[in-house]
Amino acid sequence: MSEEKKGIKIPTPWRIKRYYVYALATIVALVLPWIKINGHHFFLLSFDKMKLDLAFIQFDMQEMYLMPFILMLLFIGIFGMTVLGGRVFCGWVCPQTVFRVIYRDLIETKLLHLRKRISNKQQEPDMSKPENRVKKAIAIMIWSLLAIVAGANFIWYFVPPEDFFKYLSNPSEHLTMIGFVIGIAAFLIYDIVFLKENFCVYVCPYSRVQSVLYDEHTIMALYDEHRGGKIYEDDEHGGHKKLVNKQKDLLNINPNAECTTCEKCVTVCPTHIDIRQGLQLECINCLECVDACTAVMAKLGKPSLVTWSSDYEIVERKGKTKYFRPKIIAYMVLLVGIMFALGYMSTTKEHMLLNINKETRLYSVKHLGNNKFAVDNSYIFLLQNTENEPMEFFFDVIPPKGMEGKITIVKPTKPFKVIPGVKKKKIVTLRTTEMLAKNKRKDTIIPITIHAYALEKDGKPSKVVSVLRQTIFVFPKESILLQAK
Q1: What is the dihedral of CA 299, 305, 310, 313, to 10 degrees?
Q2: Which of 99-108, 169-178, 383-392, 468-477 has the lowest mean pLDDT?
Q3: Above 90 in pLDDT, residue 341?
């Protein structure tokens, strides 16, 4: 009887949907480093130029306080994703899984026919046959080229593509960069060709972390034992003991059992587990087993015995899965809060960096005649232009209320140019010829504000490239002023 007559329509397989996600993720990863807005990348952590580009805004390394927020977004996002959908990150986003699908399903199966079919991932190719050894070598060569591209793509988030290819023209001076690309490619060849899913099972710590994140409403690939029948039972050693191998044995135990024991859900599993045993750390939520059971049961006019659902709904049968529960809402609130904090801190970016250090000599006093004097304070200004083009900078002094105009800049006397990415050291001297304080016993500390800014093309101070820094002006006690006379 056809599937249409039985009224069972097979939905688009999860595997095909995953392929769309993989294609989108691959395109984004490859294209994103090439996109620039106002000369800035979406994400670029350049140790060479000591810059961080984030959301097309450039930050200096001194503004790396943003990185913890990015890492928190990453980890809290993955943890929240796990609480909601199990190891959906592993099956749908993780580069390890994407690369394995490209190598195993595309190169070995579709292109070279080294494997007979995608639906059987348990059976390895017979390498005793010469033609299979040749195909294996070709597969490794194709993957090696792709691994080099993947390695270069990773480096593009630290060395922008426009610099990367420029550096390749002079490899002897950029051996570290080339070494990283080759090292990443070599690891990917070993990982994808030889280590395979053992990386997910034995190396990746995420499978161990997930067990403490799950709750009864976490959705994952689950076998419906109530409909399909009990295939395994727990043994005294904490493992699983298989009760039946054939359908007739299963029906002897449970006449209403619907499982055909075809084991399509087993042969298709990339991590080589039997989903009918229940939750296992090795499951990556790729949902291949769901597709396999859906196709088999559709021929019988029945819904799949393996579904993407929760213990609460499938195993315990207490009701429908609750997706928006307090734990999920808490993760969402955290993520939104961190994104707002990151966005706010991004808007406070300074378009120039300025450190002010006072010279070791507190001041100098000069006699100008006619009972007049000049008190100078000198400072070391360390500036950096964080924009992409050379700019002219200058300063203003903002003294306390009542002292306006009494402290002036005598050095430098005119604006000076600062090129991007280079720290510029400037000696700045402030002067007063006014009696700012009368103290016979000690020097007077006067708090002042330095306004540093870039000049627009019309010579006016920029409202964007502008910073304020607090420092002090030291005015001498009266005895020092008398000595100067």
Answers
A1: 100
A2: 383-392
A3: no
Residue pair 353/383 in contact (Cβ under 8 Å)? The answer is yes
**3-state DSSP assignment of residue 183:** helix
First to last CA, the chain: 115
Contacts of 138 (CB under 8 A, 6+ apart): 112
Q: What is the pLDDT of residues 255-309, one digit of tens each?
A: 999 999 999 999 999 999 999 998 888 888 999 999 999 999 999 999 999 999 9
Decide if pLDDT at 475 tops 90: yes
Average pLDDT across the chain, whole number: 88
Nearest to 103 by CA among 195, 32, 221: 195
**Domains of the chain, first to last:** 1-34+86-318 (no CATH), 352-484 (2.60.40.10)
Distance from C-alpha of 213 to C-alpha of 110, rounded to nearest angstrom: 37
Q: Which of 198, 203, 466 is nearest to 353 (CA)?
A: 466
**Coil, strand or helix: which one is 79?**
helix
Q: Tell me which long-range contacts 189-197 makes (C-beta under 8 A, separation of at least 24).
A: 189/140, 189/143, 189/144, 189/147, 191/96, 191/99, 192/96, 192/99, 192/100, 192/103, 192/143, 192/147, 193/103, 193/139, 193/140, 193/143, 196/100, 197/100, 197/270, 197/271, 197/272, 197/282
* Residue indicated by tokens 């899965």: 321
Rounded-to-integer distance, Cα 301 and Cα 4, Å: 9
349 band by pLDDT with thresholds 50, 70 and 90: low
Residue type, 237: H
Residue 445 bridge partners (DSSP): 474
Q: What is the percentage of the chain residues whose pLDDT exceeds 90?
A: 51
Distance between CA atoms of 80 and 74, rounded to whole angstroms? 10
